[in-house]
């Protein structure tokens, strides 16, 4: 408690010194530096705020049960072949599905998406499997971005080699295809994977990569495909 009060007092003092009266001729502050190692209170506040933000974003994602309901709803409003994979949906029914899932799926069911997927269909219809795959891909990207952001120590959208290594090390136990890998080789496997990411995504050798670049490259897809228990051994 004494340490907390000491840090709080120092923070208030530094904030008072840094504050300046409002002046229309003065440019307001627009950059806030990352707390240093000795600014414990500011670091804890930043970490807690980021954790709460990521938890909130995670709760707003479409879960597995909701994806199943979405597929049933798409199939219900579609027409055509008896096979669900070949059934199509028109724009009016597409918007009906959007009204049902207006909370979590509202950002996915946009007119621009339908126009993009229609692909010159003479009847103006879109395969429901294309819509479903699009939503699944978007949800996967958002889930993975949140998972990677948990390892972003500074919260600035970058991962260092240590951050990336920690992520892959924690990911290995969830990959069935690596179940036969000896625990003593986990660090070596993680280090090798990290080197591959940084070799291609950090050409300037800055010692960090953008989370956005990690998501857009194919290496992460290859890594997460190891969750598939039926993946051939050659793909490992």
Automatic annotation (TrEMBL):
Pfam families: EF-hand_13. Gene3D superfamilies: 1.10.238.220. One of its GO terms (biological process) is regulation of dephosphorylation. Residues 150-229 form the PP2A regulatory subunit B'' EF-hand domain. GO terms for molecular function: metal ion binding. It comes from the Eukaryota. It is found in: Cytoplasm; Nucleus. GO terms for cellular component: centrosome; cytoplasm; nucleus; spindle. Keywords: Cytoplasm, Metal-binding, Nucleus, Repeat. This is Serine/threonine-protein phosphatase 2A regulatory subunit B'' subunit gamma. It comes from Notodromas monacha.
């Amino acid at each position: 408690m004494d340490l907390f009060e000491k840090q709080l007092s120092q923070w208030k003092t530094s904030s008072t010194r840094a504050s300046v009266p409002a002046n229309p001729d003065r440019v307001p502050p627009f950059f806030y530096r990352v707390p240093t190692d000795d600014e414990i209170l500011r670091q804890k506040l930043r970490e807690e705020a980021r954790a709460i933000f990521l938890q909130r974003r995670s709760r707003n994602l479409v879960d597995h049960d909701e994806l199943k309901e979405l597929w049933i709803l798409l199939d219900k409003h579609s027409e055509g072949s008896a096979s669900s994979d070949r059934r199509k949906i028109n724009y009016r029914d597409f918007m009906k599905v959007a009204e049902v899932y207006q909370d979590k799926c509202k950002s996915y069911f946009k007119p621009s998406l339908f126009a993009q997927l229609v692909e010159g269909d003479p009847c103006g219809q879109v395969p429901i499997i294309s819509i479903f795959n699009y939503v699944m891909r978007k949800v996967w990207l958002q889930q993975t971005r949140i998972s990677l952001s948990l390892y972003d120590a500074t919260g600035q959208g970058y991962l260092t080699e240590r951050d990336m290594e920690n992520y892959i090390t924690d990911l290995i136990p969830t990959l069935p295809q690596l179940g036969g890998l000896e625990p003593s080789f986990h660090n070596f496997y993680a280090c090798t994977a990290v080197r591959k990411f940084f070799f291609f995504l950090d050409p300037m050798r800055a010692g960090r990569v953008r989370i956005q670049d990690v998501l857009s490259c194919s290496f992460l897809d290859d890594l997460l495909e190891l969750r598939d228990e039926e993946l051939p051994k050659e793909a490992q």
